[in-house]
Amino acid sequence: RYRMEGRSAVPDYDFIATSGELVFGPGEDRAFVPVRLLPKRLGEHSDQFQIIIEDAKGGAIFDPQTDGGAEGCVLTVTIQNENDDLMRFSAAVRASRWVDGVVNMDALRLTAKSWKEEVVNAVTQVIEDDDDSDDEDGATAVKKQPSGFDWAMHLASLPWKVSIAICVPPPTILCGWLCFAMSLVVIGLLTCFVIDFAELFGCSANVQDSITAITLVALGTSMPDLFASKCAAAKDEWADASIVNVTGSNSVNMFL
Question: What is the rounded CA–CA span in Å between residue 231 and residue 252?
Fold first, then answer.
């Protein structure tokens, strides 16, 4: 099997990422991987992506002395910009090249596109798409229609979904650190909202703070973790995310 991964090159902006299988017939000693490169803009830096071949079957082996080792084969492809000679004639091209060297413009466009899709999905997506939408015969399953309960939950959670989609950026910015920091901020704000709402309810209903703490506050801070851990355990083969979520949420609840 072969697949492609971008390094500084961005899929769908610098190249078309494809995947598939290489089949060698009797007596054949070579096969070809189709690669489609997209045109570069003036002033854009040269970029790289990798073609990875792995999961060899039928007695095929990889050379352990090459990139990828005995488990696979990795080829790094460099996409050169044929317009580099124009830099010396145009100050605008030199400025554009400097900006592209500081910030990968293609990666920035991909981030903006994915961020926009997250906000749109938060508004329009009533139920989550099933990852296993194809059956064993390869036929596409019929898309599940949302029920009345799904619509009610979507409308009730719509302000939260939209605000979180707007406030939390995609993990492609700053290697995911900005997404991590904004997630902590959003979690802290939601925790403060739940605590203040519980205190207001306890004051209105003349309920002691200790009672509201072990009922409303406990449910409000633990139920989201429960659903997140359940989804992670159902979708992940080893359920690592659910274990991390349980330990992390308990640490936050205890120390914050």
Answer: 20
**Each residue's pLDDT tens digit, 130-146:** 544 444 444 455 567 87
- For the record, the structure tokens of 92 come out as 């605008």
Instruction: Please tell me the distance from the alpha carbon of residue 243 to that of residue 232, in angstroms, as a whole number.
Output: 9
CB half-sphere exposure, 30, CA atoms < 13 A: 1
Please spell the DSSP secondary structure of 205-252, one letter per residue: HT--HHHHIIIIIHHHHHHHHHHHHHHHHHHSSS-HHHHHHHHHHHHH
Angle formed at CA 235 by CA 233 and CA 237, multiple of 5 degrees: 75
Long-range contacts of 166-169 (CB under 8 A, 24+ apart): 166/119, 169/111, 169/115
Measure the CA–CA gap between 87 and 124, rounded to whole angstroms.
45
Contacts of 201 by beta carbon, 8 Å cutoff, 6+ apart: 207, 212, 216
pLDDT, tens digit, for every residue of 176-196?
Answer: 888 888 888 888 888 788 778
Instruction: State the pTM of this model.
Output: 0.58
For 78, phi and psi rounded to 5 degrees? Answer: -105, 125
